[in-house]
Specification:
By secondary structure, this protein is mainly alpha-helical. The protein is built from three helices and no strands.
Length: 108
């Protein structure tokens, strides 16, 4: 199999994005720490960005539109990480743990 022409096909990019999405969803379900869930969410953002860039490269007549969307997603991801890390630090100061099961007393 010749891998040099693999970058010329959108299916390869969609396959990688589907893998990133699956790993991100699996991480959100299986991880018990808040930082693990945050990393899994970032993988999902990466999958969405890769899908947008793939559609932009292969199917869009204007190349700038997809790049603007991806820059917007990157800005959202950076803001989400900053806010989530500050919340995680505040939770750790109060509960001395970042396990989501230890914080379940917030519900009652």
């Amino acid at each position: 199999m010749n891998f040099t022409h693999l970058s010329d096909r959108p299916e390869a990019y969609f396959l990688v994005a589907a893998f990133l999405l699956a790993v991100g969803i699996y991480g959100l379900i299986r991880r018990r720490t808040l930082i693990g869930m945050l990393i899994a969410g970032e993988l999902i953002f990466g999958a969405a960005s890769l899908n947008i860039m793939t559609v932009n490269r292969f199917f869009s007549p204007d190349p700038a539109v997809g790049q603007i969307f991806v820059l917007f997603i990157m800005g959202l991801a950076a803001a989400e990480v900053a806010i989530a890390l500050s919340i995680i630090i505040a939770v750790y100061r109060n509960y001395r743990s970042i396990h989501s099961t230890d914080i379940s007393e917030l519900n009652s």
